[in-house]
Write a structure and sequence with these properties.
By secondary structure, this protein is mainly beta. The chain has one helix and eleven strands; from the N terminus they run E-H-E-E-E-E-E-E-E-E-E-E. The two termini are 23 Å apart.
């Protein structure tokens, strides 16, 4: 948290009248930065060649990762580096060998106390909070079912269940201390 240096008793504007101090004084800023690498994911084969049901891993015939400059939501990894294994064979692709997109999120808040008594014990606090302030897309892992038309494509973003990795959200609040 950072208290802005404006208003009564501060570096700038310490001699301001009471009405001006009510406007410019007592502001605080804070922020949080979250940076995470992507989550690992396992490719699966859209076709089961084991004469049964359940998931099966594909054969890995190449690296599978793309340079960051070539990754797009419609082609996040190289699907040609994987193929459906032959009949009655397990695929050789390992578990969690590729990583999805990372997360970069900046959250910020601005607060101001309005004193309701001389001692400051009674006050009204205004608060504005900004989550993912720059509205950076927070993509989920791509579809990893090799043989599917959606393989390698990112089809969703954010986590609605946990409210993490979401698009920009802004909230305002008033809090009364008495």
């Amino acid at each position: 948290m950072y208290e802005l240096p404006f208003g009564k008793g501060r570096r700038f504007g310490s001699g301001t009248p009471r009405w001006a101090d009510a406007v410019i004084g007592g502001w605080e800023l804070s922020g949080i930065t979250n940076m995470y690498s992507g989550l690992p994911f396992t490719r699966t084969s859209a076709t089961n060649t084991l004469n049964g049901n359940g998931t099966q891993r594909p054969d890995r015939i190449g690296k599978g990762t793309l340079p960051a400059s070539e990754r797009t939501p419609t082609r996040y990894f190289d699907v040609t580096a994987f193929r459906t294994p032959g009949l009655y064979r397990f695929g050789n692709a390992g578990r969690n060998i590729l990583f999805g997109p990372g997360t970069v999120q900046f959250d910020s808040s601005v607060m101001k106390d309005f004193r309701l008594s001389e001692s400051g014990a009674r006050r009204l606090q205004f608060r504005a909070e900004f989550f993912n302030i720059f509205n950076t897309p927070q993509f989920n892992n791509p579809s990893s079912s090799i043989g599917s038309t959606l393989a390698g494509q990112i089809r969703s973003a954010g986590s609605k269940q946990t409210y993490q990795r979401t698009s920009r959200q802004i909230q305002f609040a008033l809090k009364l201390y008495w």
